[in-house]
Amino acid sequence: MTEQTPLLFTDLGLSEPVLQAIQSVGYEQPSPIQAAAIPALLDGKDIVGMAQTGTGKTAAFALPLLSRFNPEQREPQILVLAPTRELAIQVAEAFQRYASKLNNFHVLPIYGGGDMGGQLRQLKRGAQVVVGTPGRVMDHLRRGTLDLSKLQSLVLDEADEMLRMGFIDDVEWILEHTPKERQTALFSATMPSQIRKVASQYLNSPQEIKIASSTSTGANIEQVYWMVSGTNKLDALTRILEVEPFDGMIIFARTKNATVELAEKLEARGYAASALNGDMNQQLRERTIERLKNGKLDIVIATDVAARGIDVERVSHVLNYDIPYDSEAYVHRIGRTGRAGRSGKAILFVAPREKRLLYVIEKATRQPIKHMELPTGAAVTAHRIDQFKQSIQQVFDTSVDLSFFNDLLADFSHQTDRSPEEIASALAYLVQKERPLQVKLAEIRPEKPSTKGKNKLAREAKAGKGPKPRVNDSDLQRYRLDVGRSHEVRPGDIVGAIANEAGIDSQYIGHIKLFDEFSTVDLPKGMSPEVMQLLKKVRVRNRPLNIAEDTGPRNDGPAPDFKRRGPKPGDKRAPGKFAGKGKPDGKGKPKAKVRDRDVKNKGYRAKKV
User: Fold this and answer.
1) CATH numeric code, 9-210
2) What is the three-class DSSP state of 130?
3) What is the distance between the alpha carbons of residues 609 and 593, in angstroms, rounded to a whole number?
4) DSSP helix/strand/coil, 486
5) Which residues of the chain have pLDDT under 50?
6) Same fold for the pair 9-210 and 221-376
7) Which of 3, 465, 478, 582 stands 20 to 30 A from 135 (CA)?
């Protein structure tokens, strides 16, 4: 049987300048999405490509479109829409790299937060490729500063992410303001119905390219988790950073405030760390990513949106300090490492009450996540000793002239009658005084999940006591629950049920308002369908929550109080038509009252008083 010859970029029909450029960066063999998409785009066909992040999608559309590039045309020939500023910059940089052998080529990234004046000047000078976020592209089209009349190709990159971020209406508006005869390529990791609708409406008989994957995450990414107690997370993190050999690392936190706090704590411990979140201006965010690329930063603590599109080769590790509520967010997070065939490692911190979220992620990714052992004090000691020995050896390896120090220490030994070993020990102590070689660490035991409310955090949450860290309203969404005051429900019951049953920490459960027949609660945005299904079945006072997004008006005024209800003046209804405090129930008997102490976990019984 003849062995099949591997497909090379030279076999795909790309132009000579483009081939020279990709050979200069060391590319030889195309990835599956590139091998399928490049010939179709070279033939001028519309395509719908489904592939996970990190599979080489940018080259899949950039290489063939650049091969059809017309250097004589100054107006935009190619428009790429991307969901985030970071991804827009990354795609623009890739175009610049692949077009390095082309003459008179100009690419321009345009995005919100960037210098509008600079973008206007560059558009006026001419840019054949424009890469932008939907909002800023719309701004330029409305101003008349972006001319798409001669557009040849349009790319929708990470379309499902643009849908998730609420940009899909903007995308459709832009599509309607582009030439009908354009070529269109749509790339998406998943294919929700709205994305499929866009494809059928705006693409011309597209060729579907689906890159099957045995798992949703890269096989070259080692995935582990540690069951951690909330109070010990920082200690666990610093132990891992101490022993784990990493080059660059991205640590994911749920909120913007958490990224800043964690960055400050790591900096105080001597790590080159910085936050990356949406509150930072674009210039600072770009500078942070550049510092990570060139090795001036080793650790970036980021939110999901801020880290979207980051492709830094030296990122060897991703650590999920806070577990994501959405399995797709987990896949995107760990996709920041192990890219383009490189190996990587993903570490996940899981609180006991969040174990269900771990199962959801394992089920969605079709990969088991192994339990990891936290480095012991002995392991940290051994690592520090090894580093200390290496630093001494490096001095000898560099052939430094030590004669002055030899004479100095010989003189000190003679004066004090100290042996060379004693003097070396004293010097070692001075050098390592701030970072002792002998490490004694208290054992960190993972907190066991409690089903009886013994956990202190759960008890405080149920009692309405204890400090509760603020979560930005922009990170929350309002949901409606089918339980209310008439069912004798209290806020603590709702907090306890959601925290214990769905694994959502109480600090991420926002404002709760009780009404007679229902309640509302603010919970984190972007919860996965699996978590929503779990919450629907959770029971409070023996009633299912039946959670759903709250579509009613957002009224922040006081909730109705059934105790104040009663007949209005002139109301001729029978007494039994209402049930207020101390009112007859229609049978001549006083309505039963309910004491809090009589309320049981699985319902309640009323006592007359």
Assistant:
1) 3.40.50.300
2) strand
3) 7
4) helix
5) 1-3, 214-215, 443-444, 446-470, 554-609
6) yes
7) 478
With tokens 């309405």, the residue in question is 464
Straight-line distance from the first to the last Cα atom of the chain, in angstroms, rounded to the nearest whole number: 91
Of 98, 151, 52, 185, nearest to 137 by C-alpha is: 151
Sign of CA dihedral 74, 80, 83, 88: negative
**What is the pLDDT at residue 473?**
62
Non-local CB neighbours of 354 within 8 Å, separated by 6+ positions = 323, 503, 504, 505
390-395: Cβ within 8 A, 24+ apart = none
Q: What pLDDT shows up at residue 391?
A: 80
pLDDT given for residue 224 in this prediction:
92
- For residue 523, report the phi and psi dihedrals to the nearest 5 degrees: -130, 165
pLDDT per residue over 319-360, tens digit each? 999 988 767 778 888 888 877 667 889 999 998 777 778 887
DSSP 8-state symbol, 593? B
Nearest by Cα to 310 from 590, 32, 84: 84
pLDDT score for 49: 92
What long-range pairs does 288-296 form, CB within 8 A, spacing at least 24? 289/86, 292/248, 295/248, 296/272
Predicted pLDDT of residue 468: 44
Give the model's pLDDT for residue 285: 85
The owner of tokens 């109080």 is 561
Domain boundaries along the sequence of the chain: 9-210, 221-376, 380-431, 456-549, 574-609
295: Cα separation from own chain's centroid: 22
pLDDT the model gives residue 426 = 84
Report the top-level CATH class of 456-549. alpha beta
Lookup: tokens for 276: 């990356």
Q: Who's near 246: CB < 8 A, 6+ residues apart?
A: 298, 316, 317, 345
CATH architecture of 221-376: 3-Layer(aba) Sandwich (3.40)
Strand order in the sheet with 315-320: 273-276, 299-302, 248-252, 315-320, 344-350, 221-227, 370-371
What integer pLDDT is reported at residue 202 of this predicted model? 94
Which pLDDT value is given to residue 551?
Answer: 76
Quick one: pLDDT at residue 561?
A: 40
Residues in the chain: 609
The reported pLDDT for the residue numbered 153 is: 96
Count of beta carbons in the 10 Å neighbourhood of residue 304: 18
Q: CA 338 to CA 240: how far, in whole Å?
A: 19
pLDDT score of 449: 40
The β-bridge partners of 495 are none
